[in-house]
C-alpha cells in the first residue's frame, strides 16, 4: 500500500511561480511512472505532465514551456515546477503514481493552486 501527500499549493499572482511536491510512502514498493493531473471548476480532469521510470516526460500543450516535471527516486518524490502562471492554471492538482507490486495507480488528495491578482 502506498500513500501520497502533496504540498506546495496556494495563491500566486499571474506571472508568478509555484513548486508542487508529492511524497510517496509505504512498505516495500517500486515506482514506475509519476504524474500530475488537474481539474478546474466546470472542467474535466486532465493530465498536466508525466515522467516515466526512465526519465522521459510529456506535457499538456497548455503548459509546455512553462511547467517542468522532475523526480527524486531516492526520496520517492515527484515535483512540478510551475512558471509564468496564468489565471487559467487555477485548479485542484493531483499527484498520481504507478507503484507495486502488485502495480496499481495511487492518487493523492489534491492541492489547490489559485492564480489571481
H/E element order: EEEEEEEEEEE
Distance between the termini: 40 Å
Radius of gyration: 14 Å
Characterize the largest beta sheet: strand count, sense, and whether it forms a barrel.
Answer: 7 strands, mixed
Enumerate the spans where pLDDT stays under 50 for 5 or more consecutive residues.
none
By secondary-structure content and strand pairing, the structural class works out as mainly beta
Number of helices: 0
| Portion in strands | over 45%
Report helical residue fraction: under 10%
| Mean model confidence by pLDDT | 96
| Number of distinct beta strands | 11
Q: Please state the overall shape, judged from the principal axes of the Cα atoms.
A: globular
Characteristics:
globular; 4-stranded antiparallel β-sheet; mainly beta
Molecular structure report:
With 117 residues, this protein is an all-beta fold. The protein is 0% helix and 58% strand. It has strands at residues 2-7, 10-12, 18-26, 30-39, 46-51, 57-59, 67-72, 77-82, 91-100, 104-107, 111-115. The strands form two sheets. Strands 2, 4, 5, 6, 9, 10 and 11 form a seven-stranded mixed β-sheet that branches. A four-stranded antiparallel β-sheet has the order 1-3-8-7, with no helix packed on it. Strand 5 and strand 6 form a beta hairpin. The radius of gyration is 14 Å and the shape is globular. The termini are far apart. The model has no long low-confidence stretch (mean pLDDT 96).
